[in-house]
Amino acid sequence: MFSRKKIRIFFGIFALLLAGLVIADSVGVFDSRPYREVPHGNHSHFVPHDRDPNIPLSDFPTRPPREGERITPTGEIVPDTLGEWW
């Protein structure tokens, strides 16, 4: 059967893979949305990945874009003229 050493190695590899998946998910690797939600006090702001760093966080919307809308790098919600919905 399996020795204790092999079981420990298997468990260690499994734990490392699980930790890697948790970390990747927490940084948004699996998130396909073109924006991220940023908690800010008792509410959240929705910020695009290509955010203009000169625009303060408070200028970004507190609701996610609806279907057919997108958030610009300056924080405006505008119609998605490309017709793509992420």
What's a quick, concise take on this entry?
The chain is α+β, with helices and mostly antiparallel strands and 86 residues long. 27% of the residues lie in helices and 21% in strands.
What does this structure look like?
It is a single chain. With 86 residues, the chain is α+β, with helices and mostly antiparallel strands. It has one helix and four strands, in the order αββββ. The chain has one helix at 4-26, and strands at residues 35-40, 43-48, 69-71, 77-79. A two-stranded antiparallel sheet has the order 1-2. The radius of gyration is 20 Å and the shape is elongated.
In terms of quaternary structure, the protein is: single chain
Residues in helix, %: 25-40%
Q: How does the major sheet shape up? A: 2 strands, antiparallel
Low-confidence stretches: none
Which geometry do the CA atoms define? Answer: elongated
- Gap between N and C termini: 49 Å
Q: What does the average pLDDT come to? A: 89
Please write the string of helix (H) and strand (E) elements. HEEEE
* Rg, nearest Å: 20 Å
Helix/strand class: alpha+beta
**Beta-strand proportion:** 15-25%
Number of helices: 1
Total strands? 4
Give, in spatial order, the strands making up the sheet with the most strands.
1-2
